[in-house]
Amino acid sequence: MKTLRLLTALALGGGLVLAGDYWHSNGAGWLAEADMTSAAAAAERTPLYYRDPSGAPLWSAGPKKDDRGRDYLPVYDDDGAAVAPAPPKAQAASPRKILYYRNPMGLPDTSTVPKKDPMGMDYVAVYEGDDADDGTVKLSPGKIQRAGVKSEPVARRSIRVSVKAPGTIQLDERRVSVIAMRAESFVQKVADVTTGTRVKAGQPLMEIYSSAVASAAAEYLATITSKTVGGVEMYGRGSRQRLVNLDVPESVIAEMDKTRTAPVSIRWSAPRDGVVLERNAIEGMRANPGDVLFRIADTSVVWALVDVAERDLGNIAMGQSVAVRARSFPGRSFTGTIAVVYPQVNRDTRTVRVRIELANPDAVLLPDMYVDADIDTADAAPVLAIQDSAVLDTGSRQAVLVDKGEGRFEPREVKLGRRGGGYVEVRQGLADGEAVVTSANFLIDAESNLKAALKGFGEAASQATDAGPGDATGDRK
């Protein structure tokens, strides 16, 4: 029984071994046959393109290796597992007609067949309709996004034009007083007042003696103390007027009326609040008629004389508000108004002087101090306006790019007006609501110029081709 079982096991084992050997040998035959069939099928099929072995979005029309030396993988027409964009053959089968191929770097070089530039970059295909002759420029959505093209509709806005001009602080000519003698006089005493001292109206400045003033004072006193009737009143008014003509202060005359006494020396006082700009009075000196002994200026209101460029003169008008900033006080602004526009242009600087009246209550603005004026010339009436960046200015003409939608842009010439606040007035060429390109418009302009140049080169190339080789031979002759 044991022997039977052993023989049975050996028989079964041998069968398994034999079966295994049979299966192996037949399997190898089948594998070889499958490999031959696959190779034959692969030889019959032509790859559509080759894709990067790492799965990166890189493709090639022919066999190629990546930067690690690995072969690109072929993709066949019936390869449903590969996920990739439309292969070159599918693009070639596009119903759109390719007119020519242009240089990828924007150089004026075209080709009628696909080619590469010296750097290995493929020439870009230009399809029929891309260079339409309707005056517009068409860009693909991808190029618009990469360039950062932005559009903004034309709208009505108030243009805020700010005119800036440098200038200096000057005294108000109407607020300057001079103390000068109208008759020969002698200075007997001078108050403790010097140049730069601030004085109040009525504050004593000096005492002087003048024989002419003393004579007129005695005559006036005699008139008002006389008890004679008749023409005394008329005579008294005449003698008082003589004191006034000699510039005797009103306070001195009022004191004579009160005390009925003629003073030997006359006390001269300040005629207004202000700063002593000039002090020429010296004790004991002789002052001739017309000699200036004191010069006092009120600085509570000053002038800012600024020089406005000739081109900005049309925006300047009397009464406009002005913000003045002194270079000595950064961060502080003084508000004033335009009082006078001087009727003369400086032929050397081509500027016009403008006078601005400024309040100076704390007297920090000093004569001849440098200031910068910011004149607000805003007009309340809204006008059609676009951003400054939307204008393509060649010097002789101004144009904008109108966004027509679907990637089409139309260059259009415009007439502009005032500028200010980042916007410019449009007087002609655009309608309210039209969209204009405000960002990357120079790239679109360059694209249109490039297309015009390429079109010219393409026409020249086609003419040369139509001429034929005979004409070329004739040229060589």
From TrEMBL:
Domain CusB-like barrel-sandwich hybrid: 176-297
Domain of life assignment: Bacteria
CusB-like beta-barrel domain segment(s): 302-377
Domain CzcB-like C-terminal circularly permuted SH3-like: 384-444
This protein's record includes keyword Transport: yes
Keywords recorded for this protein, A-Z: Transport
Gene3D superfamilies: 2.40.30.170, 2.40.420.20, 2.40.50.100
Assigned protein family: Belongs to the membrane fusion protein (MFP) (TC 8.A.1) family.
NCBIfam families assigned: RND_mfp (TIGR01730)
Protein name: Cu(I)/Ag(I) efflux system membrane fusion protein
Native species: Bradyrhizobium japonicum
